[in-house]
Design goal:
Distance between the termini: 101 Å
Shape: flat
Structural class: mainly alpha
Radius of gyration: 31 Å
Helix content: 55-70%
């Protein structure tokens, strides 16, 4: 039984040896002529501005996690589709119902995310603070006439 896995193990070991060997050989045999331009930071052809340690909003990570979750869930469709055609009719019916339930759960999660606006990059108007011109605030605070400015005793 384990003899059938020997070719897979040989392939994995061979791939690892080739990958490590290429990296080591390129490091040992490659030219080493560093100069100021090669050692300087490079960012899309533009001189870097600001710190690389800038904070990302939590929304960025939320969208990334949601993408990964849906990506992993769709990976489960491929083995299901491959094994579906070779299964007996009774098992095919059961598998089809189970996949329908799985897809329904995915759609419920997707519509929930759309409803909570989890996939929007911009913040909603409710979440953003109102932008107010200071001159408008100053006009509202100024008294309309001098009589209003004097406080009664």
């Amino acid at each position: 039984m384990l003899n059938s896995y020997i070719p897979v193990l040989v392939l994995a070991v061979l791939a690892a040896v080739l990958a490590v060997g290429m990296v080591v050989l390129s490091f040992l045999l490659g030219p080493k002529r560093p100069d100021q331009r090669k050692l300087s930071p490079y960012e899309c052809g533009v001189t870097p501005v600001g710190s690389a340690r800038e904070k990302f909003p939590v929304k960025f990570f939320l969208v990334a996690m949601l993408f990964i979750i849906f990506d992993v869930e769709t990976i489960f469709l491929y083995p299901w589709a491959v094994t579906f055609k070779d299964a007996p009719k009774a098992v095919q019916a059961f598998n089809l119902i189970e996949m329908g339930v799985f897809i329904a759960i995915l759609f419920v999660g997707y519509f929930y995310m759309l409803g909570t606006r989890a996939l929007e990059w911009e913040e909603s108007e409710r979440a953003q603070p109102r932008r107010v011109q200071l001159s408008d605030v100053a006009r509202k605070l100024e008294p309309a006439s001098r009589e209003e400015a004097v406080l009664p005793r």
